[in-house]
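Quick one, tokens below. Sequence please?
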């Protein structure tokens, strides 16, 4: 369920000549039974609405006076979103014979052609007021107050994002309102300009159109949400067509060899999420995203991330979170995630957020082989991006939810084959390795062959996260001092422990690994530091250095590049 709320205009959208039909009201009740929210957004004053529509308490929130008043029927609590109209302004309009004249808590309303007098008095008194038209109605409100701002206030109270809201209306004052929602709909009787603003136009008029929309939402809301506001651009095909992903779709797998650019691609996507206003949460086992822009980081190399803090931050739709798991031992991370995942799934079911869930090193957090019933996966994980080197090592249950595979690197065909074998699917034929700055994009659900698409690099520079390697737990990428006969098995799970063990290990063991080039290999392949590897390789090849001198040289190289910044 992606759409969590319906926001509807009242006059000539929900109601005809001020009245809501029994069939339309039943559609609203059916919508509420699905667990979704209803929001009424109207230009009417609240007492007037209560008079013509006694059943208004079916709505969770009512935005009245064209955005100036927020009302909660369940508690009968009113919240003014704009100041009261200047008394001198109202008196001037009355003295000039403006009739009819309606004065609410903030709104002042009349009918055309009185807008000429209204505008004249606004100018004469130097007021910061705006005129908003609603067919024949003339509404006057403080500058910046409209249905869109009122909807935003209602959604803030409901802890919902506009992306998960569908809005429907018919008149001039509905333009901003429809654009502010994740999907905008116009009823068939709407003004032509409103139909142009909307993403869709119903075949039915007024309440029939609303009932029609409710039926479509309850049947398959994801299929309905085809709007540019919902799409995130991934790349461009060879013919110049955009390739998009959407949070209303299924899971996405990003896979490829180590160091091929998976986290760089994920970084670019987070920038696109921010541009579109989508909330995201990154599960970061190795601290790769702790310097990401527009993100609050929970946890570090010394402190495990707090589930309570994560959920507290995610309660605000504008917050994006990176869950840094460096403070957890490698073997403890899957169990930690097992506790966090149900909490995130419950939050998404209630609020639709975070819109995107990014799980890095998915083969560690969601392994294919689990001991006992450590955790059960949700039946669906929409808009979840799995990042891994080994698709075949990720939980098969989770891989089954993947609709799109993005394969990187010269072995992209093997990545796709590995995924298909894991889910018992037929691998696509004729897959060519993508060229530089390209990825293979396979829309598995559509049954189309993979296509090479070009992707842009992220705007922010990809920085090395030195604390991860200096103080974290590299798990399977740790270095092992074993010696020539394999008599030892001393594990160095990070660079600082490597230096400690190196300082105390016997000379033959140290020299065995130095002559084999094991130190430079580890720095290059596991620590992914080519400059350090090159420096270490030169030390390894320097036969004039004795064990003490070579230890000191490698130790100095490591400390120079890591301990200061870490």
């Amino acid at each position: 369920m992606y759409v969590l709320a319906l926001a509807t205009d009242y006059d000539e959208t929900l109601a005809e000549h001020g009245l809501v039909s029994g069939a339309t009201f039943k559609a609203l009740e059916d919508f509420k039974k699905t667990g979704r929210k209803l929001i009424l957004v109207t230009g009417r004053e609240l007492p007037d609405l209560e008079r013509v529509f006694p059943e208004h308490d079916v709505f969770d929130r009512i935005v009245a006076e064209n955005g100036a008043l927020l009302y909660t029927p369940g508690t009968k609590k009113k919240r003014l979103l704009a100041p009261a109209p200047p008394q001198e302004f109202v008196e001037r309009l009355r003295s000039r014979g403006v009739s009819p004249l309606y004065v609410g808590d903030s709104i002042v309303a009349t009918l055309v052609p009185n807008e000429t007098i209204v505008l004249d008095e606004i100018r004469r008194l130097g007021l910061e007021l705006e005129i908003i038209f609603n067919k024949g109605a003339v509404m006057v409100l403080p500058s910046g107050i409209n249905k869109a701002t009122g909807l935003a206030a209602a959604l803030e109270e409901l802890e919902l994002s506009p992306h998960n809201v569908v809005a429907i209306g018919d008149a001039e004052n509905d333009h901003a309102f429809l654009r502010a929602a994740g999907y905008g709909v116009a009823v068939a009787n709407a003004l032509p300009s409103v139909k142009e603003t909307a993403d869709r136009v119903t075949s039915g008029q007024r309440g029939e159109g609303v009932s029609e929309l409710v039926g479509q939402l309850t049947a398959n809301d994801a299929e309905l949400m085809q709007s540019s506001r919902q799409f995130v651009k991934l790349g461009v095909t060879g013919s110049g067509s955009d390739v998009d992903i959407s949070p209303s779709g299924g899971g996405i797998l990003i896979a490829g060899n180590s160091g091929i650019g998976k986290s760089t691609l994920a970084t670019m996507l987070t920038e696109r999420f921010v541009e579109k206003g989508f909330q995201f949460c990154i599960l970061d086992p190795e601290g790769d995203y702790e310097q990401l822009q527009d993100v609050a980081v929970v946890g570090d190399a010394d402190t495990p991330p707090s589930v309570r803090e994560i959920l507290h931050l995610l309660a605000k739709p504008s917050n994006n979170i990176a869950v840094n798991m460096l403070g957890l031992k490698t073997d403890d991370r899957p169990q930690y995630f097992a506790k966090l995942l149900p909490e995130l799934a419950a939050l998404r079911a209630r609020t639709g957020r975070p819109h995107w869930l990014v799980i890095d090193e998915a083969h560690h957090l969601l392994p294919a082989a689990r001991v006992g019933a450590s955790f059960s996966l949700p039946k669906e994980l929409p808009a979840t991006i799995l990042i891994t080197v080994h698709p075949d090592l990720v939980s098969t249950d989770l891989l089954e939810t993947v609709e799109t595979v993005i394969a990187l690197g010269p072995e992209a065909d093997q990545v796709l084959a590995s995924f298909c074998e894991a889910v018992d699917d037929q691998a696509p034929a004729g897959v060519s390795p993508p060229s530089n700055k390209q990825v293979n994009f396979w829309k598995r659900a559509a049954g189309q062959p993979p296509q090479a698409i070009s992707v842009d690099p992220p705007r922010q520079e990809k920085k090395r996260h030195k604390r991860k390697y200096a103080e974290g737990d590299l798990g399977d990428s740790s270095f092992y001092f074993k010696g020539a006969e394999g008599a030892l098995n001393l594990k160095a799970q990070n660079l600082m422990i490597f230096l400690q063990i190196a300082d105390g290990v016997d000379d033959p063991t140290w020299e065995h690994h130095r002559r084999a080039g094991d130190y430079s290999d580890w720095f290059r392949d596991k620590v992914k530091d080519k400059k350090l590897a090159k420096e270490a390789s030169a030390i390894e090849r320097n036969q004039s250095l004795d064990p003490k001198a070579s230890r000191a040289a490698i130790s100095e190289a490591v400390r120079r590049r890591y301990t200061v910044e870490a």
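The domain at 232-454 is CATH 3.40.50.300 (Rossmann fold). The chain has four domains: 5-78+146-228, 83-144, 232-454, 466-562.
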